[in-house]
Design a protein that fits this description.
CATH architecture: 3-Layer(aba) Sandwich
Number of strands: 4
Radius of gyration: 12 Å
CATH class: Alpha Beta
Number of domains: 1
Shape: globular
Number of helices: 4
Strand order of the largest sheet: 2-1-3-4
Order of helices and strands: EHEHEHEH
CATH superfamily: Response regulator
Distance between the termini: 16 Å
Helix content: 40-55%
CATH topology: Rossmann fold
């Protein structure tokens, strides 16, 4: 699984999200590559064909329309309980 964390500049909150998502997925026993990206570059990065994009509510409305169905919106990149819940929901969506 390939996940891209998207924030305004690609350096701050997306790095925090990356670290927390990696830890949550490791605890869940799920292998994934997690990268970071700024919102302006997400259009070119999509050619990498990530399985999932993670961003905040404020930035989600600016995600490209073709990525909306693969975008998970978190209200807090630090709350591991929220991250785990979102990851579980997404994985259940992948594997019926």
């Amino acid at each position: 699984m390939h996940i891209i964390c998207v924030c305004g500049m690609g350096l701050g909150s997306s790095v925090i999200a990356k670290m927390n998502i990696e830890q949550v997925l490791k605890n869940m026993g799920i292998s994934a590559t997690v990268d970071t990206c700024d919102l302006g570059s997400v259009r070119s990065v999509r050619s990498v064909a990530a399985d999932l994009y993670v961003t905040t509510r404020e930035l989600a409305i600016n995600m490209p329309a073709e990525l909306q169905d693969k975008t998970v919106v978190l209200t807090n990149f630090v709350r591991k309980v929220e991250i785990e819940s979102c990851m579980e929901a997404y994985i259940k969506h992948l594997v019926p």
